[in-house]
Amino acid sequence: MDDDFPPSERQPGGGIARLLAIMARLRDPETGCPWDVKQSFRTIAPYTIEEAYEVADAIEQGDMAALKDELGDLLLQVVFHARMAEEDGLFAFDDVAAAISDKMTSRHPHVFGDRPAATADDVKLTWEAQKEAERAAKAGHSDRPLSALDGVTAALPALLRAEKLQQRAARVRFDWPGVLPVFEKLEEEVGEIKEVIDQGGDPDRLEDEVGDLLFVAVNLARHLKVDPESALRRTNAKFERRFRAMEARLAAAGERAEDQSLDALEELWQAAKRAERDG
Questions:
Q1: Are 249 and 202 within one domain?
Q2: What is the full DSSP assignment across 192-234?
Q3: Cα(40)–Cα(49) distance, rounded to whole angstroms?
Q4: What does the buried/exposed string (b/e) look like for 24-48 if buried means 16 or more CB atoms within 10 Å of the residue's CB?
Q5: What is the mean pLDDT of each successive set of 10 residues along the chain, which is 279 residues long?
Q6: Model-level pTM?
Q7: Radius of gyration over alpha carbons of the chain, in Å?
Q8: Residue 138: inside a domain, yes or no?
């Protein structure tokens, strides 16, 4: 297949040009791939989100070979969206690259300008100030008044969006002064869930109260400087690892998890935890 492209596109630095050419060919209405031609921004968006998570998973696993592959898959998503936009006369891949280049230079005046920044905290302040200015400029073209919450997209995973909403609110000092009040709020939210259960367990109210509990749990993580998304991914992996260890023990004895009592499963769970701790 490499022979189908000019030598310059097969050399280091020519990879983007080659990828753009491949995508253009795949999207050709006459000679392209029927599946690729059929896609739209909306149908490709879920794949874009999925690929970003697979990048995060490769990093979590410390698998650099997988990371290289997953970054390529994520780059393909950018190229795919840019190609569809170019076909609609909206923008092209070069416009995407130019826009992010402009943004990065404007948000790093300590590197590309004359504003000093001696520490990482200084950089963060400069970055946030620039983002705030950009949001204010966008608000100037909108009928809606400027909000500290502008720019927190609704498409984010709920856990991540909760953290970002809280971070934005904290910038205008709408935040607890320390971690102790957050613990008190957690206890309050647990109490409210119990109250709803005692009153019959209305599903709509339960969803509302459980949502409040999760929101406060994210706030606790933020105050403890723990990334809630990473923490939950870590716990998910830990649960899966231990559960599979339980299943393996049962399978070795010719038994199945669904045939065990809860007490027996709990004993196996504790054994899996001990085995993990013992290394």
A1: no
A2: HHHHHHHTT--HHHHHHHHHHHHHHHHHHHHHTT--HHHHHHH
A3: 15
A4: eebbeeeeeeeebeebeeeeeeeeb
A5: 49 80 96 97 93 91 95 97 98 96 86 74 69 64 74 84 92 92 96 96 96 96 93 91 94 93 94 89
A6: 0.62
A7: 25
A8: no
